[in-house]
Amino acid sequence: MKRGSVSFLFVLLIATVTSVLCFRDGMLPNGDFERGPKPSDMKGTQVINKKALPSWELSGFVEYIKSGQKQGDMLLVVPAGKFAVRLGNEASIKQRLNVTKGMYYSLTFSAARTCAQDERLNISVAPDSGVIPIQTVYSSNGWDLYAWAFQAESDVAEIVIHNPGEEEDPACGPLIDGVAIKALYPPRPTNKNILKNGGFEEGPYVLPNATTGVLIPPFIEDDHSPLPAWMIESLKAIKYVDVEHFSVPQGRRAVELVAGKESAIAQVARTIIGKTYVLSFAVGDANNACQGSMIVEAFAGKDTLKVPYESRGKGGFKRASMRFVAVSNRTRVMFYSTFYAMRSDDFSSLCGPVIDDVKLLSVRKP
Ligand SMILES: *[C@@H]1O[C@H](CO)[C@@H](O)[C@H](O)[C@H]1NC(C)=O
Ligand SMILES: *[C@@H]1O[C@H](CO)[C@@H](O)[C@H](O)[C@H]1NC(C)=O
Ligand SMILES: *[C@@H]1O[C@H](CO)[C@@H](O)[C@H](O)[C@H]1NC(C)=O
Ligand SMILES: *[C@@H]1O[C@H](CO)[C@@H](O)[C@H](O)[C@H]1NC(C)=O
User: Whose CA is nearest to atom 12 of ligand 1?
Assistant: First the structure.
């Protein structure tokens, strides 16, 4: 090998090592807001200097909230550490992060609404943006984790979390905490599965202390899914559950269908017209006190299968499969839960059946 190509390889190696070193999955710098502004940069709870919050730049009415602080007769509880921020009308927080151009990333953050109105967040990394509704509360303490994904257009991502709301009370507006990021590696189909990411192993970052799972909201206008290869084709979110806090049929991750027919997940697979295929999957419960008779409806093109599952809410699963003949060169595989369910230990939290290990294979005719 020539000297030139050796030093070229060396440069390439250094470049790879540095790009790996400067990015780590996990909490953003001061993503849990534990490092706060100096008292001189605050007026009551309001932060009055836009550079006062370490690692972040603020705009508009931003409050720095300590866990246990009272608002009216509501006690504010903070999920990660002791502090969080609240975004008033048209307020935003932003942070610049070194990333790799072209790569896909998923952001995970905790949000809680504080007033009765519908609250929304616009999360963006130009030119991508998504508006996340946070009016439906899925967990009892009011905080939920949300995921959103983007593709990096350059080596620096400017992450902006913005409250587009126009409430009468300027102090109304969502609380934000625990902002984390994860690089996504789009999975490929294999000779064991025509579907990609069928076990849901690749997906958004789950904060280590988060016991609620991560909501993946529907993004009708968005082609970058925090759950690579899958689309949330519904009005409401689905929930991403981890083996550390839930019962998962296979591997480390699965999906909980938390909002009945309003919570559907889909993927389009390439198929050959006239060929016979088998769609197989696991249906279970997440061991989260979600009890009762459940039904998961599976769709493959024009064929459907209803899979009943009796949940005792203590974990467990069964397997199901359907055979169909492809009538198109693209077959839509979709799942939803027929019914709504509520946790038996907490009647304000929506829950539902879990699906996992989704496989699609072509078979010979019997
Ligand atoms: C997670 O929980 C552990 C143990 O309770 C605690 O020490 C740690 O600070 C928590 N981490 C966060 C980010 O809240
Ligand atoms: C981001 O990249 C710039 C330019 O390469 C560098 O100066 C800066 O130190 C990096 N920041 C971090 C946090 O790695
Ligand atoms: C969300 O924010 C982005 C970036 O500022 C903006 O381009 C987009 O129009 C906003 N979306 C809505 C619905 O406000
Ligand atoms: C798949 O079907 C569509 C419409 O039926 C057609 O336009 C397209 O050419 C087909 N693609 C292949 C690879 O056969």
Answer: 80
